[in-house]
């Protein structure tokens, strides 16, 4: 067997709930996400190892001094996404989001990812999670507790 052959991968112990990852493929390529739950043996029809992630689809935008309060409020909004992602389609980072499982109920997200769920339910849950993420990042930035990781998570990735 040569060194190029791919051997079946064992459990990936470094990918666990709270790990911040970068999505590499698909609609959300280049976006940051947090792993909520791992599925090492696959799940249902997906026979590959994957993870349930919640990520930032649209980060807050820059605010300047001369802007009105309504414009500032609009620019500070965050849009999030939920997704099952194959392990090969994301790259783990050194950052972790310790309160991710407390901010987001994993069971509810798993239910929302099923095909027969109404769009209005998904939209309402996304808004709720986005607000929780935004509050958490603002609070951690104010207390300077791991502020660099929180700010990096919400910042737009430039590449």
Secondary-structure blueprint of this entry?
Elements: E1 19-23, E2 32-39, E3 50-58, H1 69-75, E4 79-86, E5 90-96, H2 100-103, H3 106-112, H4 119-143, H5 147-154
Antiparallel strand pairs: 1-2, 1-5, 2-3, 3-4
Key terms for this structure?
single chain; 159 residues; alpha+beta; SH3 type barrels; five-stranded antiparallel beta sheet; 5 helices; 5 strands; 32% helix; 23% strand; globular
Question: Could you write a compact summary of the structure shown?
Answer:
With 159 residues, the chain is an alpha+beta fold.
Description:
The protein is α+β, with helices and mostly antiparallel strands and 159 residues long. It has one domain (19-154): SH3 type barrels, CATH 2.30.30.770. 32% of the residues lie in helices and 23% in strands. It is built from five helices and five strands, in the order βββαββαααα. It has helices at residues 69-75, 100-103, 106-112, 119-143, 147-154; strands at 19-23, 32-39, 50-58, 79-86, 90-96. Strands 4-3-2-1-5 form a five-stranded antiparallel sheet, with helices on one face.
Fraction of residues in H or I helices: 25-40%
Number of strands: 5
Shape: globular
Query: Within the largest sheet, what's the order of strands?
Result: 4-3-2-1-5
The SSE order reads: EEEHEEHHHH
CATH topology, which one? Answer: SH3 type barrels
The parts where pLDDT drops under 50 for at least 5 residues are none
Largest sheet: 5 strands, antiparallel
CATH level-two architecture: Roll
